[in-house]
Design brief:
12 helices; two-stranded antiparallel sheet; binds fe (ii) ion; 7% strand; 3-stranded antiparallel beta sheet
């Protein structure tokens, strides 16, 4: 019996799935590995491949102590295959197979559906690494640089997680899909990544923080619902990925929080009461709060689009099949089959936003999105507490769900962040008040100067409260000078 808690290093690919006893899959992964390393070197973090970075690596899936911190060159990071421990006697927690034993092999009738979901999830992982590859050059501190790279190597590991499932359970077409994950490229005209938000640029560090707050949180919700899957290997993979995902959202929430804090402190110090005195605030070398709000608006709306159409037959089928459940499915008190249940869905009809009761089964995406919005709202509340503490009079808000949408019922609508429906012309006239303008982007870019001295921070962002792995303030998270 292999040890399913601790990570085995007896093959080139660290794992807790007994890979050394599974020659076929081991061979397939070893064949895939060089292409992955090529991808990492060509499209991963630019300019820091030879530097020592203080990173955590999973050495166990035991929640009490899975991480070990050490200096490593990123291309030598031990990407591995880690599944949460199998739960004895686990049953399918929803859908028409509710209560049946969880599947350890792919059920033939759901093979195509499962493969599609795994490929879509897998496609997002390398995409975000590609989107963030230029950020190292403008990091506001070594602490932030390390955090960026930690997120990047873990997204790389998430790709490995999905590729393992494809190789292990989907034969020749799985192999083809695994290759495809290295062929598509974020923002490419010929072979873009599958989802819109993953083809957008991440031009500056505020975008990175907003992305890890909003888009990685969509990732969390998707993983949460796949962690409910009746296909047990997918469930176990996603459960472990969620433990890594928590750090990504920490990076996002604290990154935005520290940006807000620095702005407020600078305003107070300069005696500026009105957050809308944008030029005066910008002259202090910090990002004015209304511009931070615009970035929030943009990233929130991009991430809402990731949940797909509000009413979806695909989502209904995946739920019915026991493949993709709801957020915290096992904690919900209902029949877990949604036979007669309804769910309120927002719809854009005749130029108006209406709430309509729909069969809950077809409103699975909408429900997950609502859970997501609640989860994100908690972080916004904590940002507002930072502002309030400084005495500055300003509140960040999540825009209305109909604002700036490209997918679903609101795609053709022109709605303000407050939820007011406008004509296309009126909306376009107001656009730059609600979303970052080219000038806003240029201003933020002008602040993006690297700070590479240990313990120092760029002027637009406050230092963190505590170091990573409890390291002191001047810890050298990335060794830039002796590569
Ligand atoms: Fe991920
Ligand atoms: Fe992530």
């Amino acid at each position: 019996m292999f040890d399913a808690t601790n990570v085995s290093y007896d093959t080139q690919i660290p794992n807790n799935v007994g890979l050394s006893g599974d020659r076929r899959v081991l061979k397939a992964l070893e064949r895939w590995h060089p292409g992955y390393i090529d991808w990492w070197k060509n499209l991963g973090p630019e300019g820091f491949q030879e530097h020592m970075v203080y990173l955590r690596t999973a050495v166990s899936v035991d929640p009490k102590g899975w991480a070990r911190f050490d200096y490593v060159k990123m291309p030598e990071y031990r990407w591995g295959i880690l599944l949460a421990p199998q739960v004895e006697g686990r049953t399918i927690p929803f859908g028409q197979h509710y209560g049946e034993p969880a599947w350890q092999e792919v059920p033939g009738e759901y093979r195509a559906m499962l493969r599609r979901l795994i490929v879509i999830q897998g496609d997002t992982e390398p995409a975000s690494v590609e989107q963030q590859r230029h950020l190292g050059a403008t990091a506001p501190s070594l602490y932030d640089l390390r955090n960026l790279f930690q997120v990047n190597v873990e997204e790389g590991r998430h790709l490995w997680a999905m590729v393992y499932l494809l190789h292990k359970y989907f034969g020749a077409d799985g192999r083809e899909e695994a290759d495809g994950l290295l062929q598509r490229q974020s923002g490419s005209a010929e072979a873009p990544r599958m989802l819109g938000a993953f083809n957008e640029a991440t031009p500056d560090w505020l975008s990175f923080f907003m992305f890890t707050f909003f888009t990685d949180r969509d990732g969390k919700m998707q993983l949460e619902s796949l962690a409910q899957s009746g296909f047990d290997p997918l469930s176990r993979t996603c459960r472990f990925m969620l433990t890594e995902e928590a750090h990504h959202m920490f990076v996002g929430e604290t990154g935005v929080g520290r940006t807000i804090q620095r702005t407020c402190e600078a305003m107070v110090q300069a005696g500026i009461d009105d957050p809308y005195e944008i030029e005066k605030v910008r002259a202090l070398g910090v990002i004015d709060l209304p511009t931070i709000q615009k970035k929030l608006n943009l990233h929130f709306t991009l991430s809402l689009d990731l949940f797909g159409a509000e009413v979806s037959t695909n989502a209904a089928n995946a739920f019915n099949a026991g493949i993709k459940g709801r957020y915290q499915e096992t904690k919900i008190d209902d029949d877990h089959k949604l036979t007669d249940a309804t769910y309120p869905v927002a719809e854009f009809r005749d130029g108006r936003i209406e709430i309509v009761d729909m069969p809950a089964l077809s409103a699975i995406n909408m429900r997950l999105r609502d859970d997501y919005v609640r989860d994100a709202a908690g972080g916004v509340k904590r940002w507002n507490a930072i502002i309030a503490k400084t005495g500055v009079n300003f509140e960040m808000t999540l825009p209305h769900e109909a604002f700036n949408r490209k997918i679903g019922t609101f795609a053709p609508a022109h709605v303000t962040p407050a939820g007011e429906v406008l004509s296309a012309d009126a909306w376009n006239a107001g656009r730059d008040e609600w979303l970052p303008s080219a000038a806003d982007g240029e201003f933020i870019a002008s602040l993006m100067k690297p700070e590479t001295e240990p313990g120092k921070y760029a002027g637009w962002i406050a230092p963190p409260k505590i170091g990573i792995d409890n390291k002191p303030g001047d810890f050298e998270y990335v060794k830039l000078h002796d590569a």
